[in-house]
Backbone:
């Protein structure tokens, strides 16, 4: 929770104040005054300061008790300053200063000292290495632009102060509005989790902003993050986020397919998916997704494209269609009356093209037509200017329809030069503009395809929990023996292919009592079995079985053989890997080339619900193979989903499992069985 000393201070002291607005300590005082802060402002500096509305104080020992202190001084001086002020009763601190954890061990030590002081005096710190806070009460930043406060505007939380500025600048150009902005910097004490917790606890469905934007460089407490982000989405909010710093070269050295695929980016995507957060790759994408939501109307998945520019309509149709949003054809009989009102050559098939000579009145007719059409959920209007005539009347129609229509309308006004003045007038009326139809299309698809949060809703499969715990307790860290792996998976209810180890020819005589031909034989001993001829497939007779046994026992290092029933079907893989305090990331996909080269993989954070497992399977590019194709039977999808849920349940109940890799699983229309598996305990 955030304290009132940070959110609504009645008095603010700027430590390191200046008359020079090119310095942070000077610019923040200007922003506080011009931003309408009504409380007392103290400028602390040994040198005299003469600024109207600011009380100059020469040293912190002479400063009366204040609610909030903003520090713009060297990092080395911050600890003693915070200690002195906190002891005197100051509860809120914003620290602009750099030179902390980002600067090395000494900076980390300074941060630890700040945490200790804050905890001792029940104070709260934003930063260090941040630009501050903007809200309706005060503008506590040293940067520009300082957006006008809109109660219904977006809330922004940013790890990077510079990125927050870049987002605000770019957002201004498209008409995106802001309410509360938090630059958290190093987040020594107050991070994204604490701010989301505050937003969740104080959420008012009538007054609180509905759109939250995040730029994150670190998530310290994933489950706290999930809890409050999911809660906010369930209450009706929308969250879009960028998470930087996801490249992970270390995955190249992983010991299994699962470990190699489970990169930090994969993990963050799984985290966001669990909370129904839209994952964004860039500031532009983040801003456009937010601008789509700013309409605050149901988006739906059936869009009408209204344009006088055929090329733009084609590009927009392509990007929408390829991202799960429909551009449904419009029935000719329904549209015949509309077509009569348009110029000859116009098309109403969807996209609706009313030509370069289209008028404002015609646009109004088209919008009204789509507003009454059941098969349309939202509209995109693409209208620019070749510079031959004024488009103000067209944009005025758009303005009126945006106010009166129940369905969402998304304007694409690309003529930033030819119609720059008119577009600015349009924005000044409180609207947004998407200058690029393809960028809008991607944002619209992201917003339309977002699911409900899955956090907190999971299915724990029935399994022999006591036996699982006994096996884990009796096992040593490292890779488990093959027999232990089989016993553990069996206790979890995951079926493995029948197999048996043999160390002499005599034991082979009764094999048909426990297994059915055809069989697979693998040599025991050598690590790289295929390289030494230690794998034999399609063994379909007792005679061939003995012959292959005798051949393999002559291989250097051979100790015996493993014989398995040979299953027919498609190859799959499933696995899980522990990712620090994020818990276990569960992955699945088709095996062979699909995982090694194409990397067609789905993922989710354990534990999982049956619905999550089903959606993971259905999200695979190779899902048509699972469904069946060209007369070929599909795969038992129910069995695949069950294996994924059981795998997620197993690692949830046995967190000591560091990594589990089931590869391959063989699946057909009847069954799905594990052929080979590895499990490593921490």
Residues:
């Amino acid at each position: 929770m955030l304290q009132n000393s940070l959110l609504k201070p009645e008095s603010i002291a700027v430590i390191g104040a200046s008359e020079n607005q090119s310095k942070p300590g000077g610019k923040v005082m200007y922003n506080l005054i011009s931003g309408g802060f009504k409380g007392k402002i103290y400028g602390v500096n040994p040198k005299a300061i003469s600024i109207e509305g600011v009380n100059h104080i020469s040293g912190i020992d002479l400063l009366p008790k204040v609610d909030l202190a903003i520090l713009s001084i060297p990092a080395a001086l911050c600890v003693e300053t915070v200690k002195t002020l906190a002891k005197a009763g100051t509860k809120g601190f914003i620290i602009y200063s750099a030179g902390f954890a980002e600067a090395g061990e000494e900076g980390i030590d300074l941060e630890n000292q700040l945490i200790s002081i804050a905890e001792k005096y029940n104070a709260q710190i934003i930063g260090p290495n941040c630009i501050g806070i903007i809200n309706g009460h005060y503008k506590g930043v040293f940067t520009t632009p300082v957006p006008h406060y809109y109660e219904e505007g977006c809330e922004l939380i940013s790890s990077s102060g510079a990125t927050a500025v870049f987002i605000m600048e770019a957002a201004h150009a498209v008409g995106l509005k802001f309410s509360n902005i938090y630059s958290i910097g190093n987040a020594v004490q107050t991070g994204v989790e604490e701010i989301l917790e505050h937003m969740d606890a104080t959420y008012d469905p009538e007054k609180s902003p509905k759109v939250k934007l995040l730029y994150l460089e670190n998530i310290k407490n994933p489950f706290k993050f999930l809890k409050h982000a999911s809660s906010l989405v369930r209450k009706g909010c929308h969250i879009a986020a960028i998470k930087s710093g996801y490249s992970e070269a270390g995955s190249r050295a992983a010991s299994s397919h699962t470990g190699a695929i489970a990169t930090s980016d994969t993990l963050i995507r799984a985290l966001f998916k669990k909370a129904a957060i839209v994952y964004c790759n860039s500031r532009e994408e983040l801003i456009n997704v937010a601008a789509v939501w700013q309409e605050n109307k149901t988006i739906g998945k059936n869009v009408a494209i209204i344009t006088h520019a055929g090329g733009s309509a084609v590009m927009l149709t392509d990007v929408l269609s390829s991202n799960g949003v429909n551009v449904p054809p419009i029935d000719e009989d329904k549209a015949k009356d509309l077509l009569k009102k348009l110029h000859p050559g116009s098309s109403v098939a969807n996209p609706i093209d009313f030509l370069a000579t289209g008028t404002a009145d015609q646009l109004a007719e088209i919008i009204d037509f789509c507003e009454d059409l059941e098969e349309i959920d939202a509209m995109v209007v693409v209208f620019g200017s070749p510079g031959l005539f004024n488009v103000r009347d067209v944009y005025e129609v758009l303005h009126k329809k945006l106010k009166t229509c129940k369905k969402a309308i998304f304007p694409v006004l690309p003529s930033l030069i030819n119609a720059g003045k008119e577009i600015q007038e349009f924005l000044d009326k409180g609207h947004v503009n998407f200058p690029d139809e393809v960028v809008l299309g991607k944002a619209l698809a992201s917003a339309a395809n977002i699911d409900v949060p899955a956090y907190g809703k999971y299915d724990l499969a029935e399994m022999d929990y006591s036996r699982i715990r006994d096996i884990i307790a009796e096992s040593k860290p490292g890779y488990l023996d093959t027999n232990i792996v089989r016993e553990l998976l069996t206790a979890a209810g995951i079926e493995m292919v029948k197999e048996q180890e043999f160390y002499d020819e005599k034991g082979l005589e009764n094999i048909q009592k426990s297994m059915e031909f055809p069989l697979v034989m693998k040599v025991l001993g050598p690590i790289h079995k295929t390289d030494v001829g230690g794998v034999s497939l399609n063994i379909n007779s007792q005679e061939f079985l003995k012959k292959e046994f005798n051949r393999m026992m002559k291989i250097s290092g051979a100790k015996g053989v493993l014989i398995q029933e040979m299953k027919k079907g498609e190859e799959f893989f499933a696995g899980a890997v522990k990712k620090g305090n994020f818990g276990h990331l569960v992955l699945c996909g088709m095996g062979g080339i699909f995982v090694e080269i194409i990397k067609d993989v789905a993922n989710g954070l354990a534990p999982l619900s049956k619905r999550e497992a089903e959606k993971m399977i259905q999200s695979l590019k190779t899902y048509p193979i699972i469904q069946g194709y060209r007369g070929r039977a599909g795969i038992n999808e129910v069995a695949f989903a069950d294996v994924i849920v059981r795998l997620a349940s197993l690692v949830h109940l046995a967190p000591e499992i560091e990594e589990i890799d089931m590869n391959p699983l063989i699946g057909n229309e009847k069954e799905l069985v594990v052929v080979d598996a590895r499990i490593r305990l921490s």
About this structure: The chain is about 35% helix and 20% strand. The two ends are 35 Å apart (CA to CA). Residues 51 and 215 are 35 Å apart (CA to CA).
